[in-house]
Specification:
- By secondary structure, this protein is an all-beta fold.
- It is built from two helices and 24 strands.
- Strands 1, 4, 6, 7, 10, 12 and 13 form a seven-stranded mixed β-sheet that branches. Strands 16, 18, 19, 20, 22, 23 and 24 form a seven-stranded mixed β-sheet that branches.
- The chain is globular.
Length: 364
């Protein structure tokens, strides 16, 4: 049964009678269907001095003109959802809507569905919404305003349907992701919050074929650097951060740290494949919600081939120009340009790593 909001669940949790481990819950945090305890007792935002984000398009309360009366029944209480719906299908009940995993549009047309943001919690949720086209973060139009980051506040128990446009300049097969980051301005250094299985990023992915040409729009360089995961290392968080060093990343996990303004801060990125099949795993690094190269050779993204139960460990570094608490996160998904509709991806969802905090202090 297809829906514009209900995405595929992780194959590890498709059988409802099976228990779902904490690792599964963490990995499901990027799924658009359900996130647990998004509004539960989190520290107040703005407590530690996050630098001002430039270029954020703030959408006033007038977007309420596109609000559904109440979230649909499939959105459980306490959950947050992100999805697409075609303009011509908005009057169709959600469960009966055609699929939105693959779109075909004419050359010269825009990718222009409505973006669905559902807040079925008891508090207003503020999101930063951004879009990626072919592994690159791009400007897009949301509710008739253009920008790379859009701030949208969704009242309690409300669904927004907002018109959006992603401009796709040339024919071919394109991979599009839209992410909504919840609690984006929470710059707490509380490690309990940073390690919470809360799901602070919510996402939707679609394959968009422009014109009659279904050849992938780009051919990413695929790194074959997987290595078997040690047998005694079963803790899996999909993608995580670790401090630099010689120990396995699971022994040096990184969630909160300090750095010096103007000096490179070195760390590691750790990716694991527990999908049960070989996959090309895409990692897109974000610093303060903007795509930014952090690889030693200035990579703005990585595409890594991993066999089942393999892992990859990448050296990374970042230099902060301004003092304050900076937030780092990796957006990741599987098998770019492969059909989600035909079940060709290891997992059909877009996920987000834990959002870590690095406090940059002025140099003495």
């Amino acid at each position: 049964m297809k829906s514009s909001i209900i995405s595929h669940l992780s194959r590890r949790a498709q059988v409802a009678s099976l228990p779902v481990s904490m690792g599964d819950i963490a990995r499901l945090s990027g799924c658009i269907v359900l996130c647990l305890c998004v509004a539960c007792s989190s520290p107040k935002d703005g407590a530690q001095g996050m630098p001002q984000l430039d270029g954020v398009v703030r959408h006033p309360g007038t977007v309420a003109t596109d609000v559904a009366d109440e979230p649909p029944l499939y959105m459980q209480n306490g959950s947050i959802g992100v999805g697409f719906v075609r303009a011509e299908h908005r009057d169709i009940p959600p469960y009966d809507r055609p699929q939105t995993e693959e779109f075909r549009i004419d050359a010269g047309d825009f990718f222009s569905p409505y973006l669905i943001l559902v807040n079925n919690t008891d508090a207003t949720q503020t999101f930063l919404v951004t879009a990626f086209l072919d592994l690159v973060q791009v400007d897009f139009v949301l509710d008739e305003r253009e920008g790379i980051l859009h701030e949208v506040a969704v009242p309690p128990h409300v669904e927004f349907e907002l018109p959006m446009i992603v401009r796709i300049p040339f024919p071919g097969c394109h991979d599009v992701q839209v992410l909504a980051f919840a609690r984006p301005y929470n710059d707490t250094l509380d490690i309990d919050w940073r390690t919470r299985f809360g799901g602070y990023s919510h996402s939707r992915r679609a394959i968009v074929i422009v014109g009659d040409n279904d050849v992938p729009a780009t051919v990413p360089t695929i790194l074959d650097m997987g290595q078997p995961r040690p047998n005694d290392r079963t803790f899996d968080i999909g993608v995580g951060f670790a401090t630099e060093g010689d120990q396995h990343p699971s022994d040096q996990q990184l969630y909160v740290d300090q750095a010096t303004v103007g000096l490179p801060y070195a760390f590691r990125v750790w990716a694991t494949n527990d999908t049960g099949q070989a996959t090309n795993m895409v990692l897109i690094p974000l610093v303060d919600y903007r795509q930014r190269p952090i690889g030693l050779t200035n990579e703005a993204s990585w595409v890594i081939h991993l066999e089942p139960e393999e892992e990859a460990i990448l050296d990374a570094r970042v230099t902060f120009d301004t003092p304050g608490v900076h937030q780092l996160q990796i957006v990741f998904f599987y098998d770019p340009y492969r059909s989600i509709l035909r079940d060709e991806t290891a997992l059909p969802i877009v996920e987000g790593s834990f959002r870590i905090a690095i406090q940059a202090l002025p140099a003495n």
